[in-house]
Amino acid sequence: MKISLENMGGCRRRDHVRKKENEVAQSFQKSARLPGFRPGKAPIEMVRRRYAPDIQAELRENLLREGLRHAMEKEKLTLVDDPAVEEANFEKDSKFKFILRVDLAPEFKVPAAKGLKIAKKTAEPVTDADVASALSRIAEPHAHFHTLPARAAKEGDFAVVDYEGTCGGKKIIELAPESGQVAGAKKLWLWLRPDSFLPGFVTGLYGIQPGETRTVEVKFPDDFPHTPLRGQTGRYEVTLHELKERHVPEVDEAFCQENYKLPKSEIEKRIREDLTASRESAIRSEESRAITETLLKSTKMDVPEPLLEEERRRLVARLVEENQRRGVSSEELLKHKDEILAAAGRNAEENVKLSFLLRKIAEAEKIEVSEEEVFHEVAHLASHSGQDVRLFAKRLQKSGSLPSLADTLLRRKTVDFLLQHAIRS
After folding, report:
1. Helix (H) or strand (E) holding 102
2. Burial 349-358 (b: 16+ CB within 10 A, else e)
3. 126, 279 Cβ separation under 8 angstroms
4. SS (H, E, C) 138-184
C-alpha cells in the first residue's frame, strides 16, 4: 500500500526550520576554513554565504528524515522501502513543505500459530540393505583399472578413444566452437553404457577392437544445448586405443582400517546414523513446505510491488546462474525467458508473503534470535566451507550479510515453532 505524507505533525513550522538551519550552519562553522580566519573561527554569516548550497541541502535532508520519523511514530507506520520524494521546498515564509510517497507493510490478519493441520509423515527406517549399499559406494573412489587383453568392446567397459565429429560435411568445432568434447577429444575415457555421452554414440562402439577406427552416427535432439547442431546428424570417426576394466575393492576390515582407521562396525554405525538423519531431514523439509503452504492459503495479503520486483530480480538472477552452471547456453535461456519470468513471479509473491507472515508470528509468539545463535550459525557455515571463523565473520559483517543471516535464523525458528505445535493427521 502506498500513501502520501504531507507535512504530517506540523514540525516544519517557520521557527522550527530556523532552529534546524542554525544547527546545520553551526556544524559547518566548526570545520569551515575561510581566508583570514583560523579553522572553526569564521563568523557564522560568512559561513552561511560561503556554504549556502551545502547548508541548504543538508537542512533539506535533515527535515525530510525528521518529518518521516515523526509521521511513522504518530501514525504507527511500517515502511518496506525508502520513501520517494515528490516535493520538498522551502517557501517564502521560511516554512518547509514536503510530500513523500511511501510503501507500507501490508495489513493482514495473522493466523493462529498453534494447531495448523498437516499430513503426518514418517521417515522410512534404515535397513541393513541400505547400509550395505552405502558401504559399497565408499569403495568406489578407491577403484583401480586394468587394461584388458585384446577383445571386442562391450557394455560396462571403459574405452580410451580419439574422435572427431562432423555435421553436414563441416567440422563440429567450426559449427559450434564452444561445444567442447561434443566436437572431439583425444584419449578420452568413456564408460560404455547406453546413457553415456551422446545418444547412440556408445552403442555404436559395441564390438570395436583396440586399434580399430569406426564411423558412428549421432542424431542430435531438437533441444540440444548447442543450437547449430539441433536436429542434425553428426558423424564421428572414432579410434579405440584400449579397453579398461574397473575393479572396486571389497569393503572389509582391512579396507576400513587402511583407509578410515576405524573398524568396519563403526563405519556401518555412522552410515546408519547419517542415513537416518538424512531421511528425517527430508521429512522435516516436506513438513516445512506443508506448513508454509497452509499459512499462505489461509492469509490474504496485498504485497508491495517494490518488494515483489526486487524478489523477482533476485530469483531470475539465481535461476540464470544455476542453469549456466549446468551448461545451458544463453540462447537456450532466452528461448525459455517467459517461463523463467513466470516461475520467478510466482515464487517471488510466495516468498515475500511468507516473510511478512513469519515475522508477524515471531513477534506475536515472542520468538527471537540471540547473538549467540547467530555466532553458532556463522561458526557452522565457516566450518562447512573450510574457512577460519573469525575471517568468515568479518567478511559477513563487511558485506552487510549478518542481518540477513539473523533473519534466516528467525524464519527457521518460527517454522520450527509452527511444526512443534502442528496437528498431524
Report:
1. strand 96-103
2. bebbbbebbb
3. yes
4. CCHHHCEEEECCCCCCCCCCEEEEEEEEEECCEEHHHHCCCCHHHCE
Quick count: other Cβ atoms within 10 Å of Cβ 244?
16
Nearest to 98 by CA among 67, 52, 57, 77: 67
Strand partners, 424: 118
Is the Cβ–Cβ distance between 171 and 160 less than 8 Å? no
Cell of 31: 570545520
Cα of first residue to Cα of last residue in the chain, in angstroms, is 38
Backbone angles phi, psi at 168, to 5 degrees: 65, 30
Which residue segments constitute the domains of the chain, with CATH numbers given? 2-103 (3.30.70.1050), 144-247 (3.10.50.40), 301-365 (no CATH)
**Long-range CB contacts (< 8 A, 24+ apart) of 260-265?**
none
d(CA 259, CA 397): 40
Q: Supply the pTM of this predicted model.
A: 0.63
CA distance 125 to 337: 43
Cell of 130: 541400505
Per-residue pLDDT tens digits for 196-211: 899 899 999 999 999 9
Each residue of 297-351: pLDDT tens digit?
A: 888 888 888 888 888 888 888 888 887 777 777 777 777 788 888 888 888 888 8
For residue 137, give the nearest of 259, 249, 246, 280 by alpha carbon.
Answer: 249
The string over 396-417, giving b where at least 16 C-beta atoms fall within 10 Å of a residue's C-beta and e elsewhere, is beeeeeeeeebeebbbebbbeb
> What DSSP assignment string belongs to 70-96?
HHHHHHT--BSSPPEEEEEEE-TTS-E
Number of H helices, E strands in the chain: 13, 11
Amino acid 41 reads K
Q: How far apart are CA 394 and CA 407, in angstroms?
A: 18
What angle do the packed helices 389-399 and 371-385 form, to 10 degrees?
Answer: 110
